[in-house]
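ok so i was messing around last nite and threw this chain in just to see what happens. nothing serious, just curious
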Amino acid sequence: MKIGVLVVAYNAERTICSVLDRIQDPVRAELAEVLVLDDHSSDRTVDKALAYHDDHPDFPLTVRRQLRNLGYGGNQKSGYRYAADHGWDVVVMVHGDGQYPPEMVADMVAPIVDGDADAVFGSRMTTLASARRGGMPLYKLTGNRVLTLVQNELSGLELTEWHSGYRAYRVAALADLPIQANSDGFDFDTEIILQLHGADRRIVEIPIPTHYGDEDCHVNGMAYARDIMMHTLRFRLGARGFGQGQLGDVGTIYEHKVDGTSSHGRILAMMEGRSPCRVLDVGCGPGWLSGQLKARGHDVTGVDLVEHPDVADRTDLFVRADLEEPIPASVGGGYDVIITADVLEHVRDPERLLRGLLERLKPEGVVLASVPNISHWYSRGRVALGLFNYDQRGILDRTHLRFFTRRSFLKLASRCGLESRATRHTGLPFDAVGLQSGRWYGRILRRIDAFLVSVWPAMFSYQLVYELSPRSGLTAVESP
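result:
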């Protein structure tokens, strides 16, 4: 493999030569290049590095100076672009201030060369005693440990340290990450960890000695802690469907809503007590809801654009159809119940779809429909703050084409000849963000949310669930 060392440097004239000296001779022979990337220092870092190059002509050293200060993260981005452009397979980042041991370059690259890792982090926190012996101040050790524990809990990782700057990466793994959109500050390293984790890349830690000398610290500790926690929280929410997915991505598969207070749970409750009947599940996805209804003895036909794995086993009949087009004849008719669970908001003309479905409904049949409530405080607040944007999931799902309030949805139903027989509401999707009811704080938050939904549903209902039936005297609805 073509292995390169990236030395990120800023005002490191006192240490840069010793850092280069500490890259040991056996390793030097294996390196394709060592790049000193100076982030527009105000001292003589570049002059010192160039002089070292002149004194060691056999050392594969390249020295570059940024035209302006790019910041810690910005300097790394430039270095990783250089690595990719020059065909490096592995890049090891060493700091020009000597805080991390250049003697361990071979140890850092070994798991990548052996095919066991895509990223290797040097950890000073495998044993807290060694960190203290290396001169790490107690307040930094405590802060490092607390932040790492919280970040592990939020992300699902089990790292001993999130805050080491000693890193080795497989260059191809970096190329798959959107790192150019990352911060230019010190929080860049945290974003890299989260992106690697989100991409299911293999991360390995190795213990490294701690060294705290008289080097200048350029990190604002409070601002750094705030930024890295915000990134980790964004990842946690992104992995649950909130946000746009730059940090944390849930993918495209429609998830199973197992909570009894979800839209699926409300619809199942509305089906309680019904004798086995014919059900049309429109936009059934993988068939989670269909499968539960089938298990209760109902005859279920599922319709969706994509035939997901095992959906045929969860339905009695599956019909592949584009809901933007007229319902195909193969769906049949005479259904006792038609379910549109979280589907009307995904089509351009929900009224046309609903009218077409009603042609398949028995005169005494019902429609069970759930739609997101755009007047929920979350979406209202986003608009009020000028932060309107789409999420991966939820009310502002990026695949939603239409939005509904209670009033607008009931007007739509009325135009189709339907009237509401029963209404249910769902609260916030606590299960989606990992706040299960088994935890005490989860129970408290759910109770508060349920109370708010009951007193002001227009503001606090996350989704609206209706049982609709043809208005009295109407036996059919004609398509326009």
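not much to say yet. The chain has two domains: 3-239, 263-470.
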